Amino acid sequence: MSSNFHPDGTLFIVSGPSGAGKTTLINEARRQLEPIGITLYFSVSHTTRNPRSGEAEGKSYYFMSEERFRDMIARGEFLEWAFVHEQLYGTSKKEVVDRLNRGEDVILDIDYQGAKQIAAHRDLNERKLNVFIFPPSLDILEQRLRDRGLNTDQEIDTRLRKAIDEIDAGKEFYDYIIINDDLKVATECLKAAIIAKKLQTKTALAAIDKMAERFKEERDGRFARRR
Ligand code: ADP
Ligand code: 5GP
How many CA atoms lie within 13 A of 92 on its CB side? Predict the structure, then answer.
């Protein structure tokens, strides 16, 4: 649609503590970016955890047994995978790489261990952006997890403890950090990061070369007519 954004498929990796607001921000950013010409394909992960009420197979996750998950690991089918809160989670390599190669933009909601694995994929270097979402305080994170009503007290404790580890582990490889205090402001920040990446010249050189070629042809045509 808009010719402002480079046509190369870009991988947007959104991570941060559970309850920080990743799902909410990703949904908002996808909805608001579509009308200006950025379509973000949300990559559905695989997991061994049980579905929660309202979660649909293939929409929230691909739910599977540990045995099937381990088969996929053995076949090298994951771009990244990790143990998160005692369950296995992973991103399908084929799904992500095929889409990127078709020039589609893909967005992932994964934990910091997965983001770190992807950071080590050198072939994706110029084509990816790591965004870290963080809550304004541990108290607010706890409140959000409680209000969301999806986790037991024990699960909430585990998530709060892990949140602190994530700051230390994550700070070295994130491109952008967004504190999700006010939802509107945080959404604008995520959109800005995505838009900025889609305007980067480094990844768009081929498109710019083509455009420069067209400009030259137009210029030559115009001056030839005037002669
Ligand atoms: P995550 O995907 O990171 O686990 P969610 O997007 O599910 O987090 O958000 C956790 C809860 O916090 C949800 O109930 C969501 O509606 C709420 N929430 C998200 N962002 C904000 C915000 N900026 N202010 C208040 N509540 C928020
Ligand atoms: P939940 O079970 O609450 O949906 O997700 C728990 C955590 O797992 C979240 O922090 C989420 O980002 C992470 N997660 C979801 N899918 C993946 C994945 O494919 N890989 C990794 N590494 N983490 C994931």
Answer: 17
